Amino acid sequence: MGLAQIKMPQLGESVTEGTVDHWLKNEGDFVKRDEPLVEVVTDKVNAEIPSPFEGRLVKITAASGETVRVGAVIAQIETGAAAAGGPAAPAPAKLPASEAAVSQAAAEAPRPAPSAANQPAPPSTGGGDGGARLSPAVRKLAAEHNIDPTTIQGSGMGGRVTRDDILAVVDSPTPAAAPATGATQLPAERGGRERAQPRGDGAREELVKLSVMRRSIAEHMVRSLATSPHAWTMQEVDVTSLVAYREAEKEGFRARHGVPLTYLPFVVQVVCDALKQFPWLNSTWTDEGIVVKHYINMGIAVSIPDGLIVPVLKDTDQRGFTDLVRSLNDLIERARNKQLKPEDVQAGTFTLNNTGATGSVASQPIINQPQAAILTTESILRRPVVVGDGIAIRHIMNMCLSFDHRIVDGMMAGQFLNSVKKQLDEWTPASIRL
């Protein structure tokens, strides 16, 4: 038996600190190995951190809302058989004097009254069994749709209510019961913003407080613009052949492989080919020089109710098409359900963002530091275009590239985007890399 230290993990390349958003366990609770322990927010990810040890949580040293350096101790867990308690537990081995003092103090010290300053928030409950914990993303999604999670039978581990459970209720013709409260509740804001009391007379202004994740995203965006001189370019792409192929194959692909067939894996393969032609787009600026990466780890921007995160698919260019589809689907689902691991948000070399999912037709993305570029795919629209000497209705999509002008000039950026355009314009089923 002994005291094990839980430290702030590094959740992304160049990340030096993290903010404790929400403790999922209280002091005195028993924690299983790999059980979610705390939610941590950085400028790259909002993730649940599992416990690397099994034992009793005896001390929380970083309160909710506190920002600490990577590697700093945020909690202590008493490990060993005695930590589980119960009459059958054997007598504990004698601890070293320093550890015994910490353990004794944690056991005997009076519990302070809960407050925002010194008490971790208790885990929320929900689901048919009344005991499944909710993540903040699920809580906010439920609030947006005025759904009481305690009325839902969760499909997650231990009966936990998941994002898909909430969406299933939203799509159901019979709405779930509203939360039991005597006050009218305002829905939570999207993007990690939380409702606050109205300002002044409450009729014309309202102060919306920022969540930890929204503040971290804001700081990262400002720092990116201050670090890299952003330049921007756009190309119009004819994806008519790709649209026809996907429409014909998507149902059969789902039946064979159990996952949906989106446009994303097709674009990812094409972008990987272009990055091999123009590796400076897959590089990083340093004071010593430009580090060109001869491997491709594709970051995929994923929107969640709290904000935006960018999980990374490692060695993207080495994957066959079916593996790529499965891997992307798994990564995106885990990102939306806050099941990413620290390594899932590290070592990205290039980022792809599908802003077309929101109906956008042109956008200027901000580079995900310390990368050299980011590419967006916009909405696919049917438009009349000139084909040869005539006019035809084609499926057209814009692609927008922001790049670090310290590393890449306009000529190379244009050549890279032209390569992507040519491959998509001339796309055939033979283009798929199996």
Q: Would you kindly provide a brief summary of this structure?
A:
This protein is α+β, with helices and mostly antiparallel strands.
Q: What would you note in describing this structure?
A:
Residues 86-132 and 175-194 have low confidence and may be disordered. Helix 6 packs across helix 7 and helix 6 (264-277) packs across helix 8. A hairpin with a 4-residue loop joins strand 16 and strand 17. This protein starts with a strand and ends in a 9-residue tail after the last helix. A six-stranded mixed beta sheet has the order 15-24-23-22-18-21. The protein has eight helices and 24 strands. The protein has helices at residues 97-108, 136-144, 163-171, 212-227, 240-257, 264-277, 321-336, 410-425, and strands at residues 2-7, 17-23, 30-31, 36-41, 46-50, 55-60, 67-69, 73-79, 125-126, 132-133, 193-194, 198-199, 205-206, 209-210, 230-238, 283-285, 290-292, 298-300, 302-304, 307-309, 312-313, 350-353, 373-387, 390-404. It is 25% helix and 26% strand. The protein is α+β, with helices and mostly antiparallel strands.
Q: Span from first to last CA?
A: 51 Å
Task: Report the uncertain regions.
Answer: 86-132, 175-194
Query: How does the helix and strand content classify structurally?
Result: alpha+beta
β-strand amount: 25-35%
Strand order of the largest sheet: 15-24-23-22-18-21
Radius of gyration (CA) equals: 25 Å
What is the number of E strands? 24
- Number of alpha- plus pi-helical segments: 8
Helix content: 25-40%
Please outline the helices and strands.
Layout: E1 2-7, E2 17-23, E3 30-31, E4 36-41, E5 46-50, E6 55-60, E7 67-69, E8 73-79, H1 97-108, E9 125-126, E10 132-133, H2 136-144, H3 163-171, E11 193-194, E12 198-199, E13 205-206, E14 209-210, H4 212-227, E15 230-238, H5 240-257, H6 264-277, E16 283-285, E17 290-292, E18 298-300, E19 302-304, E20 307-309, E21 312-313, H7 321-336, E22 350-353, E23 373-387, E24 390-404, H8 410-425
Parallel strand pairs: 18-22, 22-23
Antiparallel strand pairs: 1-8, 2-4, 2-7, 3-6, 4-5, 6-8, 9-10, 11-14, 12-13, 15-24, 16-17, 18-21, 19-20, 23-24
Helix pairs in contact: 6-7, 6-8
